Amino acid sequence: MELVVGASNTTMRSLLGKLGGLLAQEYALMSGVRGDVQYINDELASMQAFLRDLSTAPDRHDNRLKDWMKQIRDMGYDIEDCIDDFAHRIPRDPSSDFKCLFIRTRFYELRTWWPRRNIASKIAELKVRAQQIGKRRRRYGVDNPINLNNGPLVRAVTYEIAEHQLTGHQLIVTKEPVGVTADMKKLEDWLDLDKPVEMCDKERIVLSIAGFGGVGKTTIAMALYQNARDKFDCRASVTVSQNYDQGAVLRMILKQVKPHESDPNIEGRSHSELMEELKTYLAEKRGLPLAIVTMAGIVASNPRKSIKDWKEACNSLFPELMPSLTLDGVTRILDYCYNDLPADLRTCSLYLSIFPKGSKISRKRFTRRLIAEGFVSEKQGLSDEEVAETYFNQLIKRKIIRPVEHSSNGKIKSFQVHDMVLEYIVSKSSEENFITVVGGHWLVPMPTNKIRRLSVQSSGSEHGNSTKHMNLSQVRSLTMFRSLDQLHFHSFNNGILQVLDLEGCKGLKEKHLNDMCRMLVLKYLSLRQTDISKIPSKIAKLEYLETLDLRETNVTELPKSAGQLKRIINIFGGNKSSRKGLKLPQEITKETMKALRVLSGIEIDDKSTGVAGLHQLTGLRKLAIYKLRLQKGSETLTQLGSAIEYLGSCGLQTLVLNDEGSDFINLLDTMSGAPPRYLSALELSGNLKDVPQWITKLSNLNKLTLSVTVLRTDTFVLLRDLPLLFSLTFSLSAAKQDEAIVDIIDDNKSQSGGVIYVPGEGFKSLKLLRFFAPLVPKLSFPEDAMPALERIEMRFEAFEGLFGVDTLKSLKEVHLRVNSTADDITNFIVDDLKAIKAPKIIVDHVISS
Q1: Is the pLDDT of residue 164 over 90?
Q2: Domain ranges of the chain
Q3: Are 9 and 343 in contact (CB under 8 A)?
């Protein structure tokens, strides 16, 4: 086994930055301590250079080197803990205030004498440890990496960070299986896909595909599902692991056969209730066979390697002639691919072990956590968010992770890790004591060292027993899945814990929230999909908090003290599917919330006192208002219009407005200033009468969602010249369906002569077109319309027809979700449309509540 150096290298780099900041504080260090800190800083800088050499050295490290590396890593963690403890125990340097500077300085020294003395003692001990580690290396003859360069060709590679700065925009990424044509044909014959339904074998209800991990079982299953899905009116695709949550699987199926917004209580339904309603089959979902996928990823990431290099690699991977690929062969390929990763990507790969087997992982959740952990920092002119996206794209390119869902803007929304890859990563992570996994599916040894990052993946009392005898005082990151039973937050060091992710956990109580408010260096706090209903005012103590996620909870407002969170970057609240919002914070000022970049899922009414303060958030990049209820002509309405106009000129990139009757969205066209030219995503929901004319000037607009009330021919004509528009959606808010909506659609149809015509030119970049409404009128496409369009999605109760789609040269799929209340005429039109040979017509008959 090779030595893992990626995480250690990243830790050293982060640590050196913190040490530099500590040295810069004039009054923080006691006499004599500055020299100790400087010594540790210099020693660690040399160690980091050694780590960089190791990351490019061959896989020939002996046990002495492994042990020495572990000592460096553990010391680095302890130094970082000491610095973080210093940061929250020692008040800020008083030198910035020149009034009575001498008196203030002396008072500061007296007040902080004891904590500074305590920390000075710890730093002295750490200096001795650093000296001993350096001597130990020489005493036991730990070799330099340069002496190991005669080994086989297994090296890390570099890559251009700007090359994959942005996530690719894709919609349909179905892969054809490789090397399993005969198996696919046999399964298709068994399904009798070409026969009418009434002639098919009613006895055949389960098809089983067997084989060892990574051979491609789920490849065949998913490819078969993709090829055959349009033959079934009701279908679902889920991933089921050996130790799975039955309720979660059933809910996943139910959400695919029934619109999520029609059943807001789905999360609270019992297993028996879900079973009673679900009548469908399970199909596993994965990608291409693992060995082929991973090798393809490494080849794509090393375009400069010669044929000779690849021959040498193949000889090292397959030293003997084998009739077929074995499990050991797959493991060797994973070793090779892992060793080829740059150090930063190794760290990101190891971090995947946080998540349970088979879980669907949010891309944004993953990248935000990388930033909060300190694994990502600004470089080469890119922000930390852009660097995190770059790392994520590299993991996709190298086939370490695979996309599962794409957002309507074409970016990856969620991803998964192949079971064998995740098992490999968990083993590596355990080896370096990078992440400790409790419960779940993996048999990993109990940690003998200090636990730094803890992922509790089992439920009930199991994980309580597993962590009972663990020392949790050094845990910097805690992730819980399913339940909080038996776990006590008082076991953790409140001066160290920086990441707390409790998404989806049950059993969260008020006492837990009070404990969280004592975690003084917390940066990332996710309470998403928990049962909480109130945030304590003590949250203001979390002065380092950067991300607060309260989505899909019962929290309706933040305490007034939340306005004191000076470092907060992301605030998420509300529930987009039900259009429930989090009341706008009362106190918003440039001084207190100047770091805020994302304010999403909020509610604004005439009682909202913080609207005027929105002008101060000049760094805001996303503003999503899920519920807007204002009186016409009110002062708050005027303030909001002015704020949006000003923020649009400052760099606002995403704007979401759901207007419930205040007519605010119809006033947007009267904005006197320049259009919000930085917008890349815009959503206007409500009784929108006309599309604002300034939208035509948004040259960066990538994603546009409009109310179905403007579904007219002239709307398509107005929008056709937007150069980067990727997706266009006409939708009706699920939270409040206007009773007159069908009349409005009929009036729009009449204005267009009975048919909505898509113009024959324009929409050069559009790939996704969606219509979500009770009635979708006749739509007609000329032959040269929307040349890049790949997918059309519709959800409706009544449907009048779709004409010309068979002439659209890039169109691959038309996906229709037909409500079970649809009349016979609608069903007849849908059946007639299914007769088209191309594009593929997919029909789902969804169940109405």
Answers
A1: no
A2: 6-148, 181-277, 290-431, 737-849
A3: yes
Residue given tokens 């100790």 in the structure block? 36
C-alpha torsion sign, points 370, 372, 376, 381: positive
Output the CATH code of domain 290-431.
Answer: 1.10.10.10
Neighbours of 832 (CB within 10 A): 10
Please give, one letter per residue, the 3-state secondary structure of 115-131.
Answer: HHHHHHHHHHHHHHHHH
- Rounded alpha-carbon distances, angstroms, from residue 145 to 51, 52, 75, 149: 9, 10, 21, 7
Find all residues with CB under 8 Å of 785, minimum gap 6, and list them: 758, 759, 760, 761, 763, 804, 808
Q: What is the DSSP string of 596-643?
A: --EEEEEEEETT-TTSGGGGG-TT--EEEEEEEE--TT-HHHHHHHHH
**Residue with tokens 């992982």, as numbered in its chain:** 361
Residues 414/360, Cβ–Cβ less than 8 Å: yes
Q: Pairing state of beta strands 756-757 and 361-362?
A: unpaired
From CA 38, how far away is CA 16, in angstroms rounded? 10
Q: Please name the amino acid found at residue 753.
A: G
For residue 113, what is the enclosing H or E element?
helix 113-139
**782, 785, 787, 793 alpha-carbon torsion, rounded to 10°:** -90
Q: For residues 288 and 286, what is the distance between their CA atoms, to the nearest angstrom?
A: 7
Question: What are the tokens at 668?
Answer: 């947007």
Give CA–CA dist 672/668, Å, rounded.
9
Distance from chain centroid for Cα 235: 26
Instruction: Using pLDDT thresholds of 50, 70 and 90, give the confidence band for residue 415.
Output: very high
In this predicted model, what pLDDT tens digit does every residue of 41-75 receive, in sequence order?
Answer: 777 777 667 666 665 554 555 677 777 777 777 77
Is residue 126 within 8 Å of 79, Cβ to Cβ?
yes
CB-CB contact of 476 with 453 (8 Å)? yes
| 479 bridge partner residues | 455, 501
- In eight-state DSSP terms, residue 267 is G
Q: What is the mean pLDDT of residues 178-201?
A: 63
- Of the two residues 452 and 786, the one the predictor is more confident about is 786
Q: How far apart are CA 794 and CA 230, in angstroms?
A: 15
**How many helices (H) does the chain have, and how many strands (E)?**
22, 26
Do β-strands 361-362 and 412-416 pair in parallel, antiparallel, or remain unpaired?
antiparallel
Tens digit of pLDDT for each residue in 479-499?
A: 998 777 767 777 776 778 999
Using one digit for the tens of pLDDT, what is the confidence trace for 554-580?
999 999 888 889 999 999 999 988 888
The structure tokens listed for 23 are 């040295």
* Contact in structure between 91 and 24 (CB atoms under 8 Å): no
Q: Which among 737, 410, 688, 728 is positioned nearest to 579, based on CA atoms?
A: 737
- Hey, what are 291's tokens? 């060995």
Q: What is the DSSP string of 165-229?
A: -S----S------SS-HHHHHHHHHHHTTTS-GGGS-TT--------STTSSHHHHHHHHHHHHG
137 has a pLDDT exceeding 80: no
